[in-house]
Amino acid sequence: MDIGHRMKELRVHYGLTQQELADRSELSKGFISQLERNLTSPSVGTLLDIIQCLGTTPAEFFADDEPEQIVFKKEDYFTKIDENEHSKIEWIVPNAQKNGMEPLRVTLAPGGRSMELKPSEAEEFGYVLKGAIRIIRGTKSYLVKSGESFYLKGLKRHHIEAYGVKEAVFIWVSTPPNF
């Protein structure tokens, strides 16, 4: 890790000058400058003081964050086609099972259906983009048309079927991941 670069990055982020950081940490401006250019190394105690003055913790300072992906494109999606169930599932946020929620885009051909989900603590939200679906939950069924949404707790066995003679496309989000 480039400690000097990280120090400068945080100092600039918080809008501090080298002099202001020096004053807060009771060091000289020249020493801060040398640290930021990696011309010298601080003692552990001095580094901990600087980290505290920068308003962070050692764990956050040394965290080697990989860039966070915010936008996902079609080429990022993972797709599973089930010929038997006449369905296509697209994981529109790859590896979302490690996150707090897992969004899918599901396409059901006429007569198509989703996998059957067993009872769980998951909460599920969906929005129908095209066509209509029928949610079969326990002994009840619910019709959801294009432009409508659904929200349910996964406490009962359930699945989703295409309704009518047109293809159905919907976004389906589960938290925690359940798919």
Describe the fold and architecture.
The chain has 179 residues and is α+β, with helices and mostly antiparallel strands. It folds into two domains: 3-62, 434 Repressor (Amino-terminal Domain) (Orthogonal Bundle), CATH 1.10.260; 74-175, Jelly Rolls, CATH 2.60.120.10. The protein is built from five helices and nine strands. The strands form two sheets. A six-stranded antiparallel sheet has the order 1-2-3-9-4-7, with no helix packed on it. The chain has a three-stranded antiparallel sheet with strand order 6-5-8, with no helix packed on it. A hairpin with a 2-residue loop joins strand 5 and strand 6. Helix 2 packs across helix 3. The protein is elongated, with a radius of gyration of 26 Å. Keywords: DNA-binding. InterPro entries: Cro/C1-type_HTH, Cupin_2, Lambda_DNA-bd_dom_sf, RmlC-like_jellyroll, RmlC_Cupin_sf, TransReg_Diox_bact_type. Pfam families: Cupin_2, HTH_3. It comes from Maccoyibacter intestinihominis. This is XRE family transcriptional regulator.
